[in-house]
Amino acid sequence: MAHKIPSSEVGVKINQWYTHICKFEVEQANDMKRLVEEEIHEMEEDQDLLLYYSLMDFRHQLMLQHLTPVHAGSETLQAVSFPKEMEDGEDEMTGLLGYYFHFFHGMYAFIQRRYIEAISYYKHAEHQLILVTDEIEKAEFYYKIAEVYYHMKQTYFSMHYAKKARDIYKKHQLYGKRSIQCDFVMAGNWIDVSQHQKALPYLEKALKVCEAMERKECTSYFKAMALNNLGACHYSMGTYHTATVFFEQAISLYQKDQASTMIKSLFSLALTWFKLGDIQRAGEAIRRGMNEACLLDDEIYQLKFQFLQALYIEKDSCEQLRSALFGLRSKKMFADLEELALDAANYYKERDMYKESSTFFEIVIEARTHIQKGDEMYENEA
Questions:
Q1: DSSP secondary structure code for residue 173 in this structure
Q2: Which pLDDT band holds residue 70 (cuts at 50, 70, 90)?
């Protein structure tokens, strides 16, 4: 009779696999994944361990989707779906398995931009966080919930969790990338409350670290993120020319790596060129951005680029503007809804078209009401 590998030994290797995932160490994570899959076939029967493996395999795919180029036709680029066997077995998930189920499900909802659903899952995971003894794992949770709160403009919730994550990561030099991402979230929140002088030191320091990382690891992904965030800060400050420089540098690096996140910089660049009155350059950014949005089947950015096209190029297209905004509202993208509706309201106000302006100010108020409801929305979703 062949010797069976104890499931506890495989569990240790899965934990090591997860450590590489959290550090974005793709090669090491791939190697450990292959080793785990080899040993699972020789392992003693353990259904909980198999569920743990399935959850970690899903988390691995999320990492690849986040970092991998989007135009290479690789199998890793296909849409990641939450495993059906996990969905069906939710009631059986208790203890740490229950924690990982809700935590990873929240991450999946986040990348789908279903932010309210993501926070609902994270809240379930938070109730089980007491079972987690590893400090780095707790930091990972704090960072992820800070990220989604930031996207929902729940500024002070986001900053609270981002600081908790950052304080832990700062004690562990091997998690420099996560520490940088915490800095990005902190800076983004300061930008949202117009505290630009508090945001800039985070971003300027992060750029220096990312440049050193680029030289060491031959990857420009995190440097592109830093440049994009600096562009966002300068856009918010009204220093539009400086913002375009940062956005264009970010796009150049994203394009080099064929990263799907380039679409965010293209949208910001288009909007900034419109603010500067350069319709030709803005239109080119829209064309590139819309091509990316269609390639990625990204409905959110398709709506956002349609909005810019209608407001700044076609002009006086209130019905098309409302159609794009209502599309964002139907997807509960209230932060985007508020930002773009305010842009339209001010556009018409500057042209003394007060009836049209008031229509969009009403949409701004509606979006802010949804944002301010905060946890009440998340509890209703749960």
A1: G
A2: very low
| 301-382 under CATH 1.10.565.10, yes or no | no
The conformation of residue 72, written as its DSSP 8-state character, comes to S
Give the residue extent of every domain in the chain: 217-297, 301-382
359 within 8 A of 346, measured Cβ to Cβ: no
State the DSSP code for 90. Answer: G
Average pLDDT for residues 205-229, to the nearest whole number? 86
Calpha distance 32→274 (Å, rounded): 48
Domains 217-297 and 301-382 share a fold: yes
Could you say which DSSP state residue 130 is in? G
The pLDDT of residue 69: 46
Q: Global pTM? A: 0.84
Expressed in percent and rounded to 5, the helix, strand and coil fractions of the chain are 80, 0, 20
Cα separation, 293 vs 276, in Å, equals 24
Q: From residue 107, how far is each of 119, 141, 163, 199 by CA, in Å?
A: 9, 10, 19, 26
CB contact at 8 A, 226 and 207 = yes
By CB atoms closer than 10 A (0-12, 13-18, 19+), residue 141 is: buried
Task: Note the CATH number of domain 217-297.
Answer: 1.25.40.10
pLDDT at 310: 94
Amino acid at 166: R
